[in-house]
Design goal:
The protein is built from three helices and four strands, in the order βαββααβ. It is 34% helix and 34% strand. It starts with 10 loop residues before the first strand and ends in a 7-residue tail after the last strand. It has 105 residues and is of the alpha+beta class. The chain has a single domain, classed as Alpha-Beta Plaits (2-Layer Sandwich). Strands 2-3-1-4 form a four-stranded antiparallel sheet. Helix 1 runs antiparallel to helix 3.
Amino acid sequence: MLAKVSMKPPYYAVIFTSVRTEGDRGYEEMATTIKKLVEQQPGFLGMDSARSHVGITVCYWDSLQAIERWKKNEQHRVAQALGRRDWYAQYRVRICKVEAEYGWP
C-alpha cells in the first residue's frame, strides 16, 4: 500500500521494521484499530506498508512534535506493549527528515 498523495518536503518519516512472532494473538484487530487512530492524529500525512518475512511500515508526519504526540498516545502505548510481549520477535524504529521526493506516475 502506498500513501495516496504526494507530500511537499520537508516532512518526517518514521520507519518501523519488524519480524513477527507466529500466530495472530489479536494482532490484526489491533492493527486495524491503530491504523484508524493514526489517520486521525494531527500532523499525520500518510503511510506506506509492506510485509513478507520482514514488515516495513513508514508513517509520514509534518513535525517531530506530531511524532512525539503519537508515540505517547495511550492506545498506541498499549499496542506497543502488546507488540513487545506478543507480536514481534524484533523491531526497529528510525526517524528521518525527508528533504526531497519524486516518483512515477
